[in-house]
């Protein structure tokens, strides 16, 4: 079987897939059409095209060439359409555009998965390759977040701090951004923890260290402890609203530590003053 030529060569099949599947999907999504725009006959035609290019050797050279071309296509789309649309944007505008682009990217990946599903069924497991969805998500992560994660992360943290100061923020927007980290990681927390949570916890420590210092200097002990309790409840609500559950224990631990450290420092300071007076 492996020595038989495919029914349809790569050179014959790829132009069909590029024009009738890939280019059409991208054009539809870019124009804002998110619903199914393909008939069952079109689906069958495109799936059969892939099948005919690989059927005699599902994990052979033609199938591998098709997989690599699929990957290049995703890279080309993200580089030419997604990255330019996000570059130069900041703060809330950046976050809104990123959510829009990620949703578009998922739609494109989902449609193309159906056309190229034969590769996922036969080539991917036999060659231990990333699935088509994983390839699409990793492409987005490497090309978009590789360049813009600092700006995205800082914009989200800025929104969180504005909420801590009493401002109303778009919690759904923050949640949507944090969901991207999880979805890109295949529903794991590795990108959420590495690219967002680590910096968020450090910033939280700085934020509450300053608040604790201000409050312990201006409030009674009872008022100070009420503030501690209030802030802990606020952070719990933040986890319920948009942060991930994995952050809850670490976040509360950071807040408690900063308040107690400042409190202990103030007590020690008073002790030293009293000793000096004695």
UniProtKB/TrEMBL annotation:
Gene Ontology molecular-function annotations: ubiquitin protein ligase binding
* Highest taxon, organism lineage: Eukaryota
Domain Cullin N-terminal, chain residue ranges per copy? 21-271
Q: Which BP terms in the Gene Ontology apply to this protein?
A: ubiquitin-dependent protein catabolic process
Q: Which InterPro entries match?
A: Cullin (IPR045093), Cullin_N (IPR001373), Cullin_repeat-like_dom_sf (IPR016159)
Q: Which family does it belong to?
A: Belongs to the cullin family.
The protein in question is named Cullin N-terminal domain-containing protein
Source species, please? Solanum verrucosum
